[in-house]
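User: Can you help me understand a structure? I only have the sequence.
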Amino acid sequence: MESDLLLDVKSELGEGPSWDSRDGVLYWVDIFRGLVHRYSPDEPKDEGFQAGQYVSSVVPSRSGGVVVTLQHGFYALKLGGQPTRIAEVEGGLTGNRFNDGKCDPHGRLWAGTMDLEEKRPLGALYVLEKGGSVRKVFGKVTVSNGLGWSPDHRTMYYIDTPTKLVRAFDYSDSTGETTNGRTAVDMSGQPGFPDGMAVDAEGMLWVAHWGGWRVTRFDPRNGKALVHVDIPASQVTSCCFGGKRLDQLYVTTAKAGIGPEETAKGSPAGGLFRIETGVRGLDTFIFDD
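Assistant: Let's start by predicting it. Here is the structure, written out as tokens:
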């Protein structure tokens, strides 16, 4: 497998890709520039929409438009318009911001916060329920990141990046409760740090390596790496499945944090990449508002 560069847009911090199978479009964000991107591969065409502040994740909404996480809260957004606040968290704590977010099979939006300095466990994982109520799942998180659910909806996966672990939890689709936390993948022997991830139809995890120049497919049953795909950019941030057959892996990257040698080589850091995996992935779950 190889990665192809689709868009050399040089995002400061590309993140949070999600696929809307209803329209055949990919959404993703550039956190530091406050941009929500909508990429239509059939045209192909990429459009950027300003959210006005840090925007760390974007998911399609059942009622139309998207839901995003801005620095301190969950917001509804009609692209080209102004964000409408749904709920805020942590009282606008200035030392934190939201990071990665994703919907579960039931249509709840899970998203976590992180310490802006990426040093202290000041963040937490939250769930936005239908109707706008927010539930705190747990705290003491440093950099809340990748989320995913198994094909049978019985297991949730979660990453707090500095731990270098992918954690697994027993998950109830009906209640959204998580129990029995445990390690699914220990990435301490892998290059870089685990960032965002996606789950395929076989239940395998595709994890982006921040600082590791790659995406790796892991078996969460034994924690073993199955295959990795090189990305010509060091800061690989997240990925999701898309395309008509859901067998294309879209991968976001960042310019932030790259070294002078990578800059001098004219790296496509910050670009959007695509991998033809030959494996069917899981569709992006839509927010049920």
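Now, to help you interpret it: The chain has one domain: 3-276. Residues 3-276 form a domain with the Neuraminidase fold (CATH 2.120.10.30). Let me know which part you'd like to focus on.
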